[in-house]
Amino acid sequence: MTDSDAILEARGLHKSFGRGPARVHVLRGLDLRVRRGEFLAVMGPSGCGKSTLLHVLGQMTPPDAGEILLDGLPVPPSAAGRNAIRRRRIGFVFQRFNLIDVLTAADNVAISLRVRGLPADGRAEELFAAMGVSHVARRKPGQMSIGEQQRVAVARALAHRPQVLLADEPTGSLDSANAADLLALLGRVHRDDGQTIVMITHSAEAAAVADRVVHMIDGRLLDAPP
Ligand SMILES: Nc1ncnc2c1ncn2[C@@H]1O[C@H](COP(=O)(O)OP(=O)(O)OP(=O)(O)O)[C@@H](O)[C@H]1O
Ligand SMILES: [Mg+2]
């Protein structure tokens, strides 16, 4: 893979939590390259640092050391620089319950676009139709099934056309039928739109829809480079 094929690259990431004897060194010199348009699954035991990795990649928290490049350019270390990247270029899907409860599905998407200074016109409707959740557009999360909520959450994460979609166990709260639907949906977004996706999962079924699976162990990723 040449440099220009990598849309997201991490070099030598370190991240610790706590101090003194309570210090946990979670990321230990982690390297990662994600190809443009790739669907990558990250697997690993509970507590090994997968969510930490995704939060660092998604610019929700800075690494202690190391570098992240998006589209070949280093992410600026300043909070303002990182926030701009997070808002404009990253989409994030959480394991569960991350929609705003008091807003309808359509308004959850609209507000996400508004805070980014982007026009909302028609985007929610377009995504909801593609995701088979047009019928819940005017409902609040409490009036939707968990599977519908997660599909709306994916629509919201994609609304601003992020370069990279990061998904932290997106099927973790779903039953097997809803999980299969969500995976099919992510697979379609990947295939049809060339969306780059990095997905954390514990499930072999979920990993099977990805182009490549990497395993996290001792704060680094195993496996051959792409
Ligand atoms: N904000 C924090 N403060 C202190 N420790 C933290 C913090 N966030 C994570 N940790 C610790 O870092 C380690 C990695 O946590 P992380 O959530 O990244 O694991 P994970 O691989 O996503 O686990 P799971 O599969 O259970 O979701 C754990 O030991 C956790 O307790
Ligand atoms: Mg986690």
The count of helical stretches stands at 7
What is the β-strand count?
10
Spatial shape = globular
- Which percent band covers the strand fraction? 25-35%
CATH classification class: Alpha Beta
Bound molecules: adenosine-5'-triphosphate, magnesium ion
Into which percent range does the helicity of residues fall? 25-40%
Class per helix and strand makeup: alpha/beta
Q: Do you know the CATH architecture?
A: 3-Layer(aba) Sandwich
Instruction: Round the Cα radius of gyration to an integer and report it.
Output: 17 Å
What name goes with the CATH superfamily? P-loop containing nucleotide triphosphate hydrolases
CATH fold group: Rossmann fold
Give the total of domains. 1
Give structural attributes:
Rossmann fold, binds magnesium ion, 4-stranded antiparallel β-sheet, 6-stranded mixed β-sheet, alpha/beta, binds adenosine-5'-triphosphate, single chain
Describe this structure in words.
The chain is an alpha/beta fold. It has one domain: P-loop containing nucleotide triphosphate hydrolases (Rossmann fold), CATH 3.40.50.300. Helix content is 33%, strand content 26%. It contains seven helices and ten strands. The strands form two sheets. The protein has a six-stranded mixed sheet, sandwiched between helices. The chain has a four-stranded antiparallel sheet with strand order 2-1-4-5, with helices on one face. Strand 4 and strand 5 form a beta hairpin. The longest helix is centred in the C-terminal third of the chain and has 18 residues. The mean pLDDT is 93. The structure holds adenosine-5'-triphosphate and magnesium ion.
